[in-house]
Amino acid sequence: xxxxxxxxxxxxxxxxxxxxxxxxxxxxxxxxxxxxxxxxxxxxxxxxxxxxxxxxxxxxxxxxxxxxxxxxxxxxxxxxxxxxxxxxxxxxxxxxxxxxxxxxxxxxxxxxxxxxxxxxxxxxxxxxxxxxxxxxxxxxxxxxxxxxxxxxxxxxxxxxxxxxxxxxxxxxxxxxxxxxxxxxxxxxxxxxxxxxxxxxxxxxxxxxxxxxxxxxxxxxxxxxxxxxxxxxxxxxxxxxxxxxxxxxxxxxxxxxxxxxxxxxxxxxxxxxxxxxxxxxxxxxxxxxxxxxxxxxxxxxxxxxx
Amino acid sequence: xxxxxxxxxxxxxxxxxxxxxxxxxxxxxxxxxxxxxxxxxxxxxxxxxxxxxxxxxxxxxxxxxxxxxxxxxxxxxxxxxxxxxxxxxxxxxxxxxxxxxxxxxxxxxxxxxxxxxxxxxxxxxxxxxxxxxxxxxxxxxxxxxxxxxxxxxxxxxxxxxxxxxxxxxxxxxxxxxxxxxxxxxxxxxxxxxxxxxxxxxxxxxxxxxxxxxxxxxxxxxxxxxxxxxxxxxxxxxxxxxxxxxxxxxxxxxxxxxxxxxxxxxxxxxxxxxxxxxxxxxxxxxxxxxxxxxxxxxxxxxxxxxxxxxxxxxxxxxxxxxxxxxxxxxxxxxxxxxxxxxx
Lengths: 305, 342
What we know:
The complex is a heterodimer of chains A (305) and B (342).
Chain A: H1 2-32, H2 39-55, H3 60-83, H4 91-113, E1 128-131, E2 134-137, H5 138-160, H6 162-172, H7 174-179, H8 184-210, H9 218-230, H10 235-267, H11 276-291
Antiparallel strand pairs in A: 1-2
Helix pairs in contact in A: 1-5, 1-6, 1-8, 1-9, 1-10, 2-3, 2-4, 2-8, 2-9, 3-8, 5-6, 5-8, 9-10, 9-11, 10-11
Chain B: H1 7-21, H2 27-52, H3 60-76, H4 83-99, H5 107-127, H6 129-132, E1 138-139, E2 144-145, E3 148-149, H7 153-175, H8 178-188, H9 190-195, H10 200-226, E4 228-229, H11 236-249, H12 256-278, H13 284-302, H14 306-316, H15 320-329, H16 331-334
């Protein structure tokens, strides 16, 4: 039982980071109708920026904020240079362009930092907290608290501020937003920069948990299962689904995999199930898409001609 | 000019010319020819699904993997050339399974579903050791055609070029049938298609089967060429390469996938030459990725209709008047592709 609780707490911490990344994707989708497959690129770049800033002896809080700010600029540039010129392009083209952006960002990281796994500088003190027999390292606690705090802060920002209101307005009905004098182009740009900054923070936090390498970007794609699970247009859904997925992954790695492997070794010639926890999000995704394509919290859209 | 030649005759002549040239090619050129021919078959397959029917498929890499593993196992069991079409059929079934959600999902959601399928199939390649030999990969024996072992690259190149001709011709035929036209209508709007009495589910199923069949053939040839099928070769990266080919080439056209595969396959080679001459070979893979990503974006922004549209412009700007006349005579094959995608 303790073991399961241990796994669940770790899962919640990782899941909260997923939520943060998924929030970024939902934000862009709501505001601009574009699905950003390149979120993984933002993730990696953000993590490497923090790494570079830390390597330049800049104190941790400043480094994290600096990397988020840098990512905001990158996101803005992506919107201005890439998305805006192809505003009227078909969906396939835009999806592909965001993938192209991810390839581009990965290549830049590869050029500058190489392909080796890097030891990530310790952003948080070492050690673990003993909570009723459950041990959690400070890394996990910090990642969990920071990303939940950020997610909540972000949701509050959307609910209670003027800028958030304008963002929601643009997302809800672009034409109406234009009619009441909102500069929707700027709003889109803002959404992209916020999203990139969130992804950058998520990347930094993930790197403190798993170490830093270019492979981190694949989590940007796994975040899609979170987004679809929660509903593409639901910010709150993304948060809940992220936590759910994190827990599911750690439980799979810790409990399901050994059971399954024992079973398979006994009855078949398959010896190992490999990294099952990395596939679980996608299996879940397929199921969700078949059962409830609009996600848990999403609304079913009507189709127009 | 070229316009007055029937595309089929032109393709056959072109293939004959290629076959004639093959004995004089050196090793490297043969290798390039094989790579381009296989890529072109795969790109034609994906183009049918994504370009013509409008279904975004991120699982092309996985499908080609299914083809390679099937062909490998059958080839090792002594199936001769039959291993290749058999791989096509198995992959067509796999493609149908992956595509079944498409009957409920559309656009973006379908794209995400195929993305999931790519990862799941890739994972299966790694763990189904009895069939796939896991991460170490499945060694494949040389391809045999009617009892003759294909021993050298030139013979294999001949097989590939002939397969490409067949694949292209099949696509060309399909495009001008009722089915091919209903693909285009489904792409433009499913509700419109329904309104016109097209059975959308039926149309999509055929798109998956045909596309899967040729993806499997491309995968089989890839396997026989590398003599090894390993999971690392059939990742999302391969899917993205193929999507890039059809986009750079021009979605929905028949010349597009050919030009796109030529471009995407030869680009890394060209970059390698440039990088070597500048003495920056260490940056090679990064440079290749960088150019690749940049080109995708640049093409999408500045020439969304791809190389085939550019090609058409360059080729036919001289006889603009003739073009008008020819388009009357040969309306079904000559309309500019991809314009409808806007």
